[in-house]
Amino acid sequence: MSATHQWLVSALSRAATLVPIVIGLTEAVGLPRSSQIGKAMLLLAWILPSVTGLGVLTGAAPNPVMVDFLTGAGQVQVGYVDWPLYWFPYTVLFSIGLYFLATRFFRFEFAELPDGSDYIAPPS
């Protein structure tokens, strides 16, 4: 969801949209918000929209400001299509890094979500 919305809305509004979804997911599977996996999911729902916003020029407010500074300093012009070429690899690396930080700092109560296979449709 965050990857598709970064073209249209700000990082704060993406995070504000994701947080209730994560709360609903944790409550749907019967987890308290104070569980370790609930905390990790909420934290990532709040941080990842900002991280993925780096990948698109209009994904975060500082991005066009940086382009303006680069242009004013006489540096190379960075266009809308050029921006992901420079920043998308960092977005992927930061996202993977956040995944590993969340899974290492939050020791989950279980290795697999209880009754998680009940929520996934079997392949047809």
From TrEMBL:
Subcellular location: Membrane
Presence of the UniProt keyword Transcription in the record: no
Principal subcellular localisation of the protein: membrane
Topology of the protein relative to the lipid bilayer: Multi-pass membrane protein
UniProt entry tagged with the keyword Transcription regulation: no
GO CC terms of this entry: membrane
Keyword line: Membrane, Transmembrane, Transmembrane helix
InterPro entries, sorted: SLC13A/DASS
A GO term, aspect molecular function: transmembrane transporter activity
Protein name per its UniProtKB record: Uncharacterized protein
Organism listed in the record: Bradyrhizobium ivorense
